[in-house]
Amino acid sequence: MATRLGWTRQELLVAFSLYCRLPFGRLHHRNPEIIRFSEAIGRSPSALAMKLTNIASLDPAITSTGRAGLRSASANDRAMWDEMQGDWERFAIESEQALSEAQVRARLDKETSQDDISDRVGEDRITQTSTRIGQNFFRSTVLSAYNGRCCITGLSLPALLVASHIVPWRHDSANRVNPRNSLLLSALHDKAFDSGFITIRDDMTVQVSRKQNVINDQFFSESIVYYDGKSISLPEKFSPGREFLSYHREHIFEN
Question: Rounded to whole angstroms, how far apart are CA atoms 255 and 250?
Fold first, then answer.
């Protein structure tokens, strides 16, 4: 019987990156992305899908809902989860590198050497800054967590959705890529949130600024004031951090 090899760091980076980028409902072995990347890293689709459910068992946003079928994570899974939570920007860059290598490996012929793969990935990295990688990772992760819908209105047109920082990126460099420092909002509600017209209470309901809700403007009333007191749709992964929401209410919201 063949010995079952443990997951390498590169394989785990690919798995964690896919966990961040795929909605919870697509973490199964029939997903074409999981099939494609499992082939690239030399694992079966079932093994990769199982690893993704292991990772999900570490996410409080998922386990708090009592999801059935989640498996226990390994010590290495937990270590990478903690590493990811501790430095999101570094994780975004390293996971993107691992995904790129896997994608290149999937495209190239079997005769292609590992050096060729590394060279190709190196060329790709030259054209991308770490900031750009972090921004792309942040947006794709937040879109995935909220299933591509504005958490206030339910709008699902990607071109009109913004992965909005709760604490502005200029105020907290350590959490610029942290998906828990985010809400998925329509472009209008992103602007209203950044401007302090609206905020989110600890009970995850919308609060509209009293300074603004007296404006005699029908559109403002229908598109902003209408949502005062209504619950937001919570993400399946990476719930918004209460510490970030508290900062927004204290420093940005115009009460």
Answer: 9
